[in-house]
User: Which sequence fits this backbone?
């Protein structure tokens, strides 16, 4: 572990300004053998781009990334200026900590500085002491320092309940997010105590700082008019597991970190890390670099800065909601919960209040926000539990999302090349990883991170091989250098030999044998072994995905979510923009059918420019077809664009959230009027079956349409009365619940009698067990996420429809979803991994 020696502490110096102070610190680093003299210029260059003053009289000057070669070895020096040096904005620096970073050994020293930042008296003592050992003791960890915001939360008087931190990982991001969402429903003050530390139950960061591991006792105290109800709800939330998956499911989602096996036999340079996502890839490496954000420290108009911060927070929150929705559809609710937690980090009342307090003291919105989130991220990084400490990366991700909207200068760093690469990075924030294109990224290797990080979870969900915690030496590899990323062995191999390449190729073939077989057969129809066919289509959200759907083997598009054309913009798309998008998709399908769903806004998808009134329960409010009727101008514009595009190929139009025959009649009447205006041929019309009333009226509705498409996600939440995004209930909202399956059976029966077909486009369609059961119940088209198309088709080709039908009938009589899944597992144990 890196230690600060007495020769690296210089006391009682003076400097006329910041520039000279940096030169003094830089020369001390040269004298200590840490850097080449030229690195001092890089330290000054860094200061010109981004200030290094932390607060409480402490500054940490260091060089730019491109000057890494001028670092001889990792280390720090401490230069004391007792009378202070103006570091900008009238802030005097008394302790200047010069950093030379060739590895990450200096991180522990910097983490200890965060304790000093929150203790002005301690900072003053170190800034004026004449004993170098006082500074050494703190930075070497010999004298403990209080966390920067340890005293921010004080115990409250009131009734309390004893609970236990959820297993296996304790009060980490997901369960803490669930607790915050429950606590915020009540007006009472609510505190959680663990050992000698108290946290605000409505502050995610405050809860994470508790560091409560699985099984540890906690005390929840509430005070206020609804305190009793709050404690009752919180106790129930803890008993339900606080959104934690069952322990038996944890290994698949959160595999235990493991180091590289000792018997790995590679000739090239092996850089060992931890396996985070399986798979083996070969290709050139490329270093990922994020943009540099620069903000002014002070601003003259506090009121304007308050508004800027509030606007940036609101915009970032809207972006996170959209990202959550997008990733939820791509990877499922469990993995998308990462961005749900990010929303709570953004809405942390303590963090927002402290940023506003700094603005009142003359700081700019950007400077105040960065100071607050970086301090808290540093505190989280010090937690002993690696899973909890890993949330520092999440907070940094959220913080930078807001800071991008406040930064005066944004310098974009090197972009990825056009050819596929193995991506190298110090660490990747979850939103960075979520946006990666698996077609362009062969694998990920990070210097930091861990196998339980959210980045690792997302990498696995995107099927990208990943190795984490490989150390900073991976960043010394130059762009374009040949390498092998062995996600199974947890290593990166630089300059592999021919034998290494052969070994990697063999491993890839072995690991991906089934996947490759599915890919090769992706264009084959999904015909069961007893000759029954099920069409497998794709769900898409933008024009580019239409091509991907066809290439994945999709037999059409079963759901095009047109609302994604309306999100993340200031005005709705006009007719020509929509027509161009729909036309592009229809042409890409090359004769295959595409179902365009009309605008489905509302519920958990909000569009600020529509100025919809706030609703107490938006899932039961103006959404889907109801919004189309409220804004008939948007509806007619969209229908015109769709019908114009239908001339290019087989387009089907589908209405969302139809709850009654009168709604369908009105939607059809408007559509027909638009069609007559355009003088184009009629198209097939269908509806989503998402609400129980539509199921109960399916016999009437089926007479008026050409097809049904069951939206299992919404149907499940309405049938079970469980919000699919609820922090506690969401895991129980399983679309394979027998009650939901009975709704499917009733829908199919009504459709058969009317002579129309039934598809399914919710998450259950791509579920291994769901694909079997829906097919067994008579659903003849499954529309799934693009990556799932080949595997769903292969799964259906491995079973008989007779077995699927028999199993589906038995599933209708099960007690709950768990019993249904157990039944399918037992019946199809050998059919391609059905579970």
Assistant:
């Amino acid at each position: 572990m890196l230690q600060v020696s007495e020769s690296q502490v210089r006391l009682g110096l003076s400097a006329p300004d910041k520039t000279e102070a940096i030169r003094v610190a830089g020369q001390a680093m040269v004298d200590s053998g840490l850097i080449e003299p030229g690195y001092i210029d890089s330290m000054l260059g860094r200061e010109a781009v981004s200030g290094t003053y932390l607060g409480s009289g402490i500054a940490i000057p260091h060089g730019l990334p491109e000057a890494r070669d001028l670092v001889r070895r990792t280390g720090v020096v401490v230069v004391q200026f007792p009378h202070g040096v103006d570091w900008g904005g009238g802030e005097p620096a008394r302790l200047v900590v010069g950093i030379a970073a060739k590895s990450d050994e200096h991180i522990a020293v910097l983490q200890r500085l965060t304790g000093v930042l929150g203790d002005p008296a301690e900072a003053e003592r170190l800034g004026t002491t004449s004993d170098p050992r006082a500074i050494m003791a703190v930075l070497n960890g010999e004298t403990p320092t209080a966390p920067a915001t340890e005293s921010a939360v004080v115990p409250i008087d009131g009734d309390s309940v004893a609970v236990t931190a959820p297993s296996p990982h304790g009060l980490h991001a997901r369960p803490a997010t669930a607790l915050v969402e429950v606590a915020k429903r009540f007006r009472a003050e609510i505190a959680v105590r663990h050992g000698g530390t108290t946290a605000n139950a409505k502050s995610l960061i405050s809860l994470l700082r508790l560091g409560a591991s699985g099984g540890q006792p906690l005390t929840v105290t509430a005070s206020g008019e609804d305190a009793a109800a709050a404690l009752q709800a919180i106790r129930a939330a803890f008993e339900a597991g606080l959104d934690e998956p069952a322990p038996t499911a944890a290994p698949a989602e959160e595999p235990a970190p493991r180091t590289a096996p000792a018997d790995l036999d590679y000739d090239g340079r092996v850089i060992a890390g931890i396996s985070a996502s399986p798979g083996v890839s070969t290709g050139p490496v490329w270093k990922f670099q994020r943009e540099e954000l620069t903000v002014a420290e002070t601003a003259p108009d506090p009121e304007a800065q308050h508004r800027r911060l509030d606007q940036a927070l609101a915009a970032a929150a809207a972006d996170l909601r959209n990202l959550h929705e997008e990733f939820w559809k791509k990877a499922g609710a469990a993995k998308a919960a990462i961005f749900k937690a990010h929303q709570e980090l953004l809405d942390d009342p303590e963090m927002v209040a402290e940023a506003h307090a700094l603005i009142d003291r003359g700081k700019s919105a950007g400077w105040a926000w960065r100071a607050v989130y970086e301090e808290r991220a540093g505190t989280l990084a010090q937690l002993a539990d690696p899973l909890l400490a890993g949330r520092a990366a999440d907070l940094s991700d959220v913080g930078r999302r807001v800071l991008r909207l406040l930064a005066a200068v944004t310098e974009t760093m090197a972009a990825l090349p056009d050819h596929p690469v193995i991506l190298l990075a110090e660490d990747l924030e979850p939103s960075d990883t979520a946006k990666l294109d698996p077609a362009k990224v062969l694998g990920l290797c990070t210097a930091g991170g861990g196998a339980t990080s959210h980045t690792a979870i997302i990498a696995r969900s995107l099927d990208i091989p990943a190795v984490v915690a490989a150390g900073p030496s991976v960043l010394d590899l130059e762009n374009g250098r040949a390498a092998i990323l062995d996600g199974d062995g947890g290593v990166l191999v630089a300059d592999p030999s021919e034998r290494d390449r052969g070994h990697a190729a063999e491993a890839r073939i072995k690991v991906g044998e089934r996947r490759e077989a599915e890919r090769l057969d992706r264009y084959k129809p999904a015909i069961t072994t007893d000759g029954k066919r099920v069409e497998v289509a794709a769900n898409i959200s933008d024009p580019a995905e239409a091509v991907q759907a066809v290439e994945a083997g999709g037999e059409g598009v079963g759901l095009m979510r047109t609302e994604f054309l309306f999100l993340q913009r200031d005005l709705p798309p006009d007719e020509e923009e929509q027509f161009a998008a729909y036309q592009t998709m229809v042409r890409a399908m090359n004769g295959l059918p595409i179902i365009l769903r009309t605008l489905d806004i509302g519920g958990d998808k909000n569009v600020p420019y529509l100025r919809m009134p706030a609703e107490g329960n938006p899932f039961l409010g103006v959404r889907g077809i109801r919004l189309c009727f409220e804004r008939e101008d948007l509806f007619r514009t969209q229908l015109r664009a769709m019908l114009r595009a239908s001339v290019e190929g087989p387009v089907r139009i589908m209405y969302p959230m139809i709850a009654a025959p009168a709604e369908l009649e009105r939607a059809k009447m408007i559509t027909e009027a638009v069609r007559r205006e355009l003088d184009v041929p009629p198209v097939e019309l269908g509806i989503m079956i998402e609400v129980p009333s539509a199921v109960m009226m399916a016999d009437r509705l089926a007479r008026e349409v050409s097809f049904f498409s069951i939206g299992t996600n919404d149907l499940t939440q309405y049938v079970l009365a469980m919000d699919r995004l609820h922090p506690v209930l969401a895991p129980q909202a399983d679309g394979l619940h027998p009650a939901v399956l009975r709704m499917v059976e009733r829908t199919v029966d009504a459709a058969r009698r009317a002579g129309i077909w039934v598809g399914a486009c919710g998450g259950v369609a791509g579920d291994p067990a769901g694909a079997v059961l829906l097919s067994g119940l008579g659903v003849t088209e499954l529309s799934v996420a693009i990556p799932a198309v080949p595997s769903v088709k292969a799964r259906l080709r491995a079973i008989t429809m007779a077995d699927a039908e028999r199993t589906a009938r038995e599933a209708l009589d099960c007690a709950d979803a768990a019993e249904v899944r157990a039944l399918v597992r037992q019946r199809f144990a050998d059919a391609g991994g059905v579970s």
User: Anything to note?
Assistant: Residues 302-331 form the longest helix (30 residues). The two ends are 46 Å apart (CA to CA). The mean pLDDT is 81.
